Amino acid sequence: MGNVQRLLNGSTLINWAVGELPKVTEVSADGIKTYEMNFVDEYDTYRSFKYPWQGMVKAPYLLIEPQPDNITLLFNKFGDSNIDYYKIYGGTTPNPMTVIDTSKLTLKRITSLENDQVYYFRVTAVSNTGVESDFSNERRVLVNIIPPGQNLVLNGDFSLGEDGWIWEVSGSGIADWNIIDEVSHFDISNGGDQYYSIQLRQNSISLLKGKKYIFEFDAWADADRIIEAKVGQDDEPWINYSKIGPFEIKRTPVHYVFPFIMEEPTDSNARVVFNFGTSDVNVYLDNVSVIMEVESSIRDEKNYLTKYALYGNFPNPFNIETTITYELPERSYVSLKIFNLSGELVKELKNIPNNAGIHGVRFNASSLSSGIYFYVLYAQSVSTRSFFQATKKMVFIK
Hints:
Strand content: over 45%
Structural class: mainly beta
Helix content: under 10%
CATH superfamily of the largest domain: Galactose-binding domain-like
Low-confidence stretches: 296-306
Shape: globular
Mean pLDDT: 89
CATH topology of the largest domain: Jelly Rolls
């Protein structure tokens, strides 16, 4: 179904036809692969050929890709090797005549634009002798750039009632969601058999690869219990971008802060999820936010302590005994608890003040059954009363 072409230089061009295989592989006469290409969507293509081409277009061709933090312009005057730079024309009316930027490259990211405004763009190419080409095709785009420091969660304080949020009770779960004095009350009659049996979520959140975000909220309950809160993918495989596992909330309101780096590709439809299943204890929630950190800003370390850390246990998986390590930047009250998959507390390893530094605690699981467990570190500064909490997963195999 594919084809092969012997090139004049002795190399061989191979077309493999099948979607998941390359559309073109070029191999030199001595058997070295020199070039390979496939389509992003891996379409089947049954014939590929390579020909010399000396063509040159009269004007650049322009594409625009709106991104959450910029407008990306892609342009090229194909076939012309005599280009010094490109002029970028832009404005809020068609056929813009104002040069808003220039570029030596064939890509330009523009950020200084007014939000909720339609802009028109076109480009020209300027040769090494100063001759400007014809205008490219024109593109229009609605600007919606999300600046750092802005809450990406709509109605995170519930001042607009249920607007922006999706409430779902599934399986055997039974619960009601009410907003009283701009605080979400979750009245749970039956927690169901899964964390997601009772779920509040919001999607259409844009996260950029490599950027640091702060996920924050206030939460408490009628009694100490486990919940899930995370920022993740809104489709299979449901990647947990924030890397937060189930954790315990208290009777008194606590402001939770979870920083994370978006390590996956940019996602313009991520979601914030709160799962309240597996327990009948009522939950309360307020002041939800996901904010891209402003790199030059200084946060109040009374609320955001960057030097607290909970590390992965070693070994993991483990047989009988493992060591849990954590780090404290200052003297703190520390509690380290172990929970099973049902959210039940199975062991409290320590609940005492600790000095600053790195600490290791050995955990012996000989009295437990094989399975997945979660360990949760709670730390509160003795001097500032700042609170830190983190959760990790471990696997016990007898």
